[in-house]
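Researcher: Can you fold this with cytidine-5'-diphosphate in place?
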Amino acid sequence: MRKLTIAIDGPAGSGKSSVAQRVAQILGYLYLDSGAMYRALELKALQNDGLALSSDAELEDLAASTQIELKPTPPQLVSEGVKNKVLLDGVDVTQAIRTSEVAQAASQLATIAKVRELLVAHQQRAGAGGGIVMEGRDIGTVVFPNAELKIFLEATPGTRAERRWKEHQQKGEHLTLDQVVEEVHERDKRDRERRVSPLVHAKDAVLVDNTAMDVEETARLIVMLARERESELAKTGGREG
Ligand code: CDP
Ligand code: CDP
């Protein structure tokens, strides 16, 4: 069977990372978390104090001179909670990028067109061979507009914030639920309203609302859709229509 490119987009806390990883594991595909690139670059900007507040041009230069490497998790190692290993100029920042501060600042960095161009090119190279589940905000619209299967993952804002809040609790970060609701709301608004590559539901993406579903059920639904796509493509010899 031909291996597909599967694009999963959606707002914060909709379950993209957990579900995409599980789908990749079941199908034996690579998993790639595009948001980790925005987070890693922003971490560097925050570390170079001052740069966090610097001009777009300076952030563009920073993007051009930074090496971000995502080690796609091989299928046999993919399990819930195992993220892509993220190397920032050779240093492992896999855990350091998972803070609420980095998430917020990353969504500001993600509004800069030139920064996006550089990261999108990187993502396209990483997924060029197919057999990949990539998740983010613009995967089905910009990174892989020809992906054979596109999913727009949703859950209610309250559910998404609660999921994120639980993760912070487990890591011992004592944010209140209200703080997380506010953070997720603000970031979603910015992601949906930005001029370049906003978070939108692509016309040809299947809407999956997993408010009342767990990770396993959601992943199984997407795997079923992927199997359908595989057999449609096998029948038409890969031609659309
Ligand atoms: O990547 P994204 O921000 O879209 O979400 P995630 O990091 O995959 O999921 C956030 C949290 O929600 C994780 O702890 C997941 O295990 C959990 N989750 C859930 O409980 N039920 C789902 N259907 C999807 C995710
Ligand atoms: O895991 P969560 O959904 O909370 O966020 P993420 O996927 O790690 O992405 C962090 C931020 O990077 C998002 O809020 C977006 O602003 C940006 N991003 C983007 O613009 N395009 C992508 N393909 C992925 C992330």
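Model: Folded with cytidine-5'-diphosphate in place. The chain has nine helices and eight strands.
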